[in-house]
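Tutorial, part two.
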Amino acid sequence: MRKKLRSGFTTGTCAAIAAKAATRMLFGEEVSRESILTPKGVVIETAIVDVVREENSVACAVQKDSGDDPDVTNGIWVYAKVELTDQEGIEIAGGEGVGRVTKAGLSQKIGEPAINPIPKQMIQKEVGEVLERKGQMRGCRVTIYVPKGKEIAKKTFNPRIGIVDGISILGTTGIVEPMSERALLESIQVEMNVAKANGVKHIIITPGNYGEGFIKDTLQIELSKAVKSSNFIGETIDMALEQNFESILLVGHVGKLVKLAAGIMNTHSHVADGRMEVFVSHAALCGVPIELLKEMMDCITTDQVIHILKEHNYLEETMESILKKISFHLEQRCLSEVPIGAILFSQKYGLLGETKGANEILKWVKHQNK
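Running the prediction step on this input gives:
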């Protein structure tokens, strides 16, 4: 029997647990283990290590557990230091080993610590609840630090996207899902089998959570008609062909699906990242001036590129060119055996475009099983 892969928890969860424990200890409690409810709805409980008490502060650490996911941050200690202040609210700061943002386009402003929004919310929630229970009206400062973060960050993509001197404190669900390639492909196959067995004839493929949200909230389609492919878009298309689905529709964030215009069917950044190259080459074909092309090539997010194109009235033409190439590569992948199309969107700009025939497939998807 195949062993089920074990999930772990994110650096954001580590930071929130450590901050909660440190806050409790600041008020005289003894804490050897601590737990929180993650955004995914899973309770994580773990040991508290290396407690450092000072006159006006307490610091402690939580050891990162990535489960069976191959993660360079597995095993590191994430610390939180909590101290009361005379200022209102909860201030969250980054210390040693937590990266600093040096380029625009990320969730944080230039100069801010690379602590993502969801981990910040988790820390605010956990620390705030402790303060409320204690009847504490003063504010506090929470400093997250990772002593080995600077060294570990060299093995990540942080320097490439403008985060220096440390790792990012990450996590949207608080949980690390195992990312074994074999296990992921097997789980995709299972999803595909279930959809087929339940009468789905026209299948939607989406890379991840953003796509699922767009399918459900914007397209108003049940997720039972969709399969999450992660980065394995090519392999998932192959599975859909083997299952003899009558049509295939890809729905995804532009940051993932724009890579299809270069024939990149595994969209993981470790495999290939041609986002800016795709945008720049197609923008050049549409007559975008060289100065803007250079500016686009220096962008680190697709939203930045879209902003430039939109501001100078080149977005529609450039997206049309990109979508034609995406359509070409998708048809090549499935050898034109079934209708296949793609819909691209951005969290910031909404629907960006669709390939020829995608709207027709969308109608088929919506009206099946009615």
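Residues 181-367 form one domain. In part three we will examine how such features are distributed along the chain.
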